[in-house]
């Protein structure tokens, strides 16, 4: 099963050496929303053991609904509020409202198999001894097998996404497949096999988007609260100097909004017709060696974007290579030169071509490292206010900060 482009603002195209990608079939403006995508699959990224609220780890400092993944208040001893919205089949999983519970009972908790599997995996000492990655993969497989029953068409869409088993996913499948099979439950779907398990893990590895914990200025180690498979967003390729970025508003949408886990792709700056639209798969402040390591290990490719081609020639002891903060200091010296490149945000003729990008489009808030993109234009009028896709900070082109109401974007200091 193949997916067509989701709107007239994007075109799916086979990119030489890059697989499928998204290109602009027409000129696109800064701040323009080119995609709003809903997940076909969501699953928790927390280890099973963090259900114990006595844990002092940072992961237990937040508590999330197991359907919409909004932040829940930590329960107070003796308060039975949360138990009123627990799954009736597996009481370990809690929801922010009866509405979310009702939706979960029609999706992720719709079958007794899924609930029993999740409960039994929580008690499996062999799995609990494994790294977090294995525990999360087990959750993904339960969600994927359930999806095959709930929505066979979405399951086929997931299988159509890019990603083939490699040594890592095959090794994971060899461990997890018999573990799930040992639950002594009826087969989750026709064709349940080691080969299918390997294929599913490969799709997850290349296509899952992380939904992060809320931003905190006091914590530089944000963790992933959940992962989602977004069928259209998965078509965007990576670039270390992206021209678009992803926004989500998991905790800020109204409580009755069933689309709070949607992700939105907005343009960072203007692009011409025919240009590929790219995201960065991680914060843009990472240095060359770190980026290449992550891309190779997590996605199986070496990046040859313009930025990487420049940085690959830098010496290993270059301060910009080794320390992102030193890189910002170097760019400050080039501010006047970079300001002359407004019509060319990347500054192709500069020895340091991404100086302007960092100056204008990277959030300078402590422990953030998010990317700034203009707010959506009003009609034909572009916005001169940019929003950070991590902390929600608003900033004008004149570099002054805008005070934003908490009901719109979270601002946790």
UniProtKB/TrEMBL annotation:
Superkingdom of origin organism: Eukaryota
Transmembrane annotation, as ranges: none
InterPro entries membership: ASHR2-like, SET_dom, SET_dom_sf
Signal peptide (residue range): none
Disordered as annotated region, ranges: 315-347
Gene3D superfamilies in UniProt: 1.10.220.160, 6.10.140.2220, SET domain
Ranges of residues in domain SET: 5-282
Annotated Acidic residues bias: 318-335
The name this protein goes by in its record: Histone-lysine N-methyltransferase ASHR2-like isoform X1
Organism classification: Eukaryota, Viridiplantae, Streptophyta, Embryophyta, Tracheophyta
Gene this chain is encoded by: LOC113854473
């Amino acid at each position: 099963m193949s997916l067509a482009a989701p709107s007239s603002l994007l075109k799916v195209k086979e990119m030489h050496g890059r697989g499928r990608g998204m290109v602009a079939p027409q000129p696109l403006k800064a701040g323009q929303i080119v995609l709003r995508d809903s997940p076909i699959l969501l699953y928790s990224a927390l280890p099973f053991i963090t259900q114990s609220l006595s844990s002092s780890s940072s992961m237990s400092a937040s508590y999330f609904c197991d359907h919409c993944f909004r932040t829940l208040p930590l329960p107070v001893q003796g308060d039975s509020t949360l138990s009123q919205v627990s799954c009736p089949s597996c009481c370990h999983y809690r929801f922010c409202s009866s509405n979310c519970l009702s939706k979960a009972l029609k999706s992720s908790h719709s079958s007794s198999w899924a609930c029993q599997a999740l409960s039994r995996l929580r008690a499996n000492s062999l799995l609990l001894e494994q790294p977090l990655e294995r525990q999360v993969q087990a959750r993904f497989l339960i969600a994927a097998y359930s999806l095959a029953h709930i929505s066979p068409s979405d399951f086929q869409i997931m299988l159509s996404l890019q990603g083939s088993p490699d040594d890592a996913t095959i090794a994971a499948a060899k461990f997890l497949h018999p573990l799930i099979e040992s639950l002594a439950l009826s087969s989750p779907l026709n064709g349940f096999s080691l080969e299918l398990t390997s294929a599913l893990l490969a799709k997850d590895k290349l296509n899952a988007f992380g939904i992060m914990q809320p931003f905190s200025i006091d914590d530089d180690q944000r963790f992933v609260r959940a992962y989602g498979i977004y069928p259209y967003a998965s078509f965007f390729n990576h670039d270390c100097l992206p021209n678009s970025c992803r926004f989500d508003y998991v905790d800020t949408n109204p409580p009755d909004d069933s689309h709070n886990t949607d992700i939105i792709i907005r343009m960072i700056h203007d692009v011409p017709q025919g240009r590929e639209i790219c995201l960065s798969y991680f914060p843009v402040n990472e240095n060359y060696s770190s980026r290449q390591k992550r891309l190779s290990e997590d996605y199986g490719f070496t990046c040859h974007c313009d930025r990487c081609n420049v940085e690959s020639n830098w010496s290993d002891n270059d301060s910009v290579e080794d320390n992102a903060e030193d890189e910002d200091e170097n760019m400050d010296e080039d501010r006047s030169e970079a300001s002359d490149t407004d019509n060319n945000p990347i500054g192709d003729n500069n020895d340091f071509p991404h100086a302007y990008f960092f100056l204008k489009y990277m959030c300078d808030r402590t422990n953030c490292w998010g990317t700034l993109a203009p707010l959506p234009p009003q009609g034909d009028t572009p916005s001169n206010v940019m929003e950070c896709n991590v902390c929600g900070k608003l900033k004008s082109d004149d570099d002054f900060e805008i005070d934003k109401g908490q009901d719109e974007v979270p601002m946790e200091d």
